[in-house]
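re: ur question from earlier - yeah i can do the single chain one, its not a big deal. heres the input i used so u can compare w yours
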Amino acid sequence: MQQGHAGFAGFQFGSCIRLHDKTTRQNSSYGSRAQKIIRNRITPSTEVYDVKNGTVLSPSETIEFGFLNTIICQITGNILCKNLPIILPYGDISHGFHHIHLKHLNKIQHLHYGMDVSTFVYTVTQNHQRLILQRDGSFMLVKQNGIAKCVVVSEASSDGKGFYKIITAYPLPRIPNFAKRGDRIIWER
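and the output i got, formated as tokens:
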């Protein structure tokens, strides 16, 4: 049974839908009356969307992409980071899988040899080397081996259960100056 969801086509099996990349390209001719030609191209993907929870499943076929460990400030004793699971919501154009797929997939595939969104996110959440507390209270997880990979998460809760939801993920060709941006590295491997 084929089913569409916010720009994606998928095939339903059980309570999950396997997503397929439905990319729209726009080409224009030169001149003042440029006509736009829109072509749809469907390519296979490994992402699986959990209909019940509204999340994308990790490559290990669970909704949890990883965990952040509890980090306590040694000076003030405040909890900077809680021990909660990290999930990838389907989201919309501003956050989650849909945002990453629309805004950052081309960069991810170009710089990391055709890697898909869930694999990219899973790689960072499982093996991040830095945890940065940003000014807005969200966390940036950074993994660096060659071109750095970055995932931004923020704390959320649903039905009384806390978790970190993934806002965005993208490659970092160069590491920014976190102190100049007002961010703090709170954990480093």
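The radius of gyration is 18 Å. not sure if urs matches, ping me
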